[in-house]
Amino acid sequence: MSLQENRPIFLTGSGSCAEIVINAPARRNALSMSMWSALPVLVRTVDADTAAKVLVIHGGSAGHFAAGVDISEFETIYADEKATRETTATISTAVDAIANCSKPVVAAIEGSCFGAGIALALAADVRIASKTAQFGLPPAKLGIVYPPADLKRLVDAIGPAAAKRMLFSARRFSGPQALEMGLVEELAAQGEALDAAKTFAEEVAGNSAWSVRTLKSMIAAIDEGASEAALMQHMVDGAAGADFREGYRAFLEKRKPQFPSG
């Protein structure tokens, strides 16, 4: 993948791990509308890259994951109802692109993860944060609310009571507090969230790409209310597939599997 480090958001990585890097250190990686607009294009590139097995999204060398929407644009992007709807749609499209990526997505979180930064992180499949990361949802401080889809992901992740605690108080929460309430799945030492995310990505990439991709789609379908009967065909397809044959033979032969799907 080509490097574009001079841009405020870019795609990099090699081999099985693709990386979307948020690169706006002067504003703690707050995302401008042009950055939100660029995200779906980057995700589509990862989807189309057969070599990429996992996508890691992180804040590069900025020391922060994402401090939300760039507040310097608020006068324009929330100027009236039309602008607000267009802004919300643009951000929602970007967040949904992360959530709907065909590859597993891991968010590596250092420093600030506020507002829409949390929405971005929640769209990932797995979140790994440093112990010194800070999380916060400030809509109530700004006299606004959280978009419905983002609110649902928050409630699904941490439950209604914890969501109310975060939103009503607009407090900042630490990495250990985020782990306790289920906002993140793993903690790393300061400055080591990306390394931990890449280690996890390597573990995922070593498994059957077909299994991982299908499990991700099944979990999403279950969340949307799909029945067991509707999903059973995936089990049947897997048992008849080449990856399963290779997987159990490799286990019996005590060797690393070489899955046909990658």
Q: If you had to describe this structure to a student in words, what would you say it looks like?
A:
The structure is a single chain. Helix content is 50%, strand content 15%. It is of the alpha/beta class and 262 residues long. The protein has 2 domains: 9-205, 2-enoyl-CoA Hydratase, Chain A, domain 1; 209-252, no CATH class. It has a 6-stranded mixed sheet, with helices on both faces. A 3-stranded mixed sheet has the order 5-7-8. Strand 2 (17-22), helix 1 (33-48) and strand 3 form a beta-alpha-beta unit. Helix 1 (33-48) runs parallel beside helix 3, helix 3 (81-99) packs parallel to helix 4 and helix 6 packs across helix 7. It is globular. The model has no long low-confidence stretch (mean pLDDT 94).
Q: In brief, what are we looking at here?
A:
The protein has 262 residues and is an alpha/beta fold. It contains twelve helices and nine strands.
Any chance you could write out the topology, listing elements then pairs?
Blueprint: E1 9-14, E2 17-22, H1 33-48, E3 54-58, H2 74-77, H3 81-99, E4 105-109, E5 112-114, H4 116-123, E6 126-130, E7 134-136, H5 139-142, H6 148-158, H7 160-169, E8 172-174, H8 175-181, E9 186-188, H9 193-205, H10 209-223, H11 228-239, H12 242-252
Parallel strand pairs: 2-3, 3-4, 4-6, 5-7, 6-9
Antiparallel strand pairs: 1-2, 7-8
Helix pairs in contact: 1-3, 3-4, 4-6, 6-7, 10-11
Number of strands: 9
Spans of at least 5 consecutive residues with low confidence: none
Full CATH superfamily name of the largest domain: 2-enoyl-CoA Hydratase, Chain A, domain 1
CATH C-level class of the largest domain is Alpha Beta
Rounded mean pLDDT is 94
Helix content: 40-55%
CATH architecture of the largest domain: Alpha-Beta Complex
CATH topology of the largest domain: 2-enoyl-CoA Hydratase, Chain A, domain 1
Strand content: 5-15%
Q: Biggest sheet: strands side by side, in what order?
A: 1-2-3-4-6-9
Give the radius of gyration. 19 Å
State the secondary-structure class. alpha/beta
Describe the biggest sheet? 6 strands, mixed
Amino- and carboxy-terminal Cα gap: 18 Å
